[in-house]
Design a protein that fits this description.
mainly beta; five-stranded mixed β-sheet
């Protein structure tokens, strides 16, 4: 009955060839196969050599089987694939004067990336773990921003221009107070008109 005797390589890197030579005892010589594997992974049925080039980071489960006429043996393991960061989110490029601005930066990568601002206006902050940028603009105009995501495999950066606009104007409201809605007049009667007006973001001139 076959017995797998080799120890698997449990680390890999995106874009780099991964090779594991599975070894097993048994007579007749066992034939190798994969019963669980990531896309693109192969095993040589005769030699037991596993080949693969990882395309994404994270944990990848593998189970290899050695079989002959006397029985079978299996070996299951998890390959931890490291990958450099890649920022995948689209920046928020418009802010409003005096109003909170937020942008949740998202990035792939293994290990999990850490975030930082390399270019930013005064007072802007970023949470190094979550990637959330916070700021309250205090001046109008364009502000350059650059955020980076970094792990042990490398870094990625995203540069954008944040345009700070003025608070949009809200039109004033007007309400008639006189005459009353149900008041009746005769032709030729004088009519006195009265109204009130308010402006939530300014003043009203008579």
């Amino acid at each position: 009955m076959p017995a797998i005797t080799s120890v698997p390589d449990t680390t890999g890197t995106v874009g780099q060839p991964y090779v594991y030579d599975v070894e097993a005892t048994g007579n007749p010589a066992p034939v190798f196969s994969l019963t669980q594997a990531p896309t693109g992974m192969t095993v040589d049925a005769a030699t037991g050599v596993i080949n693969w080039t990882p395309e994404v980071g994270g944990g990848q489960a593998v189970t290899v089987l050695a079989t002959n006429s006397a029985g079978a043996d299996s070996q299951s393991f998890l390959i931890d694939v490291t990958a450099p960061p890649s920022i995948t989110s689209t920046p928020v490029t418009v802010g409003t004067l005096g109003q909170p601005y937020a942008y949740d930066v998202e990035a792939t990568g293994n290990p999990t990336p850490v975030f930082a601002l390399t270019v930013a206006p005064a007072g802007m902050t970023i949470d190094p773990t979550s990637g959330v940028i916070d700021w309250t603009p205090d001046a109008l105009g364009d502000q350059p921003v650059t955020v980076t995501a970094t792990n042990s495999e490398g870094s990625d950066s995203q540069a954008y221009t944040l345009t700070v606009q003025a608070v949009p104007n809200v039109p004033p409201t007007v309400a008639m107070t006189s005459p009353a809605a149900d008041q009746v007049f005769q032709l030729g009667d004088p009519v006195a008109l009265a109204a009130t007006a308010s402006d939530s973001d300014g003043s009203v001139a008579q």
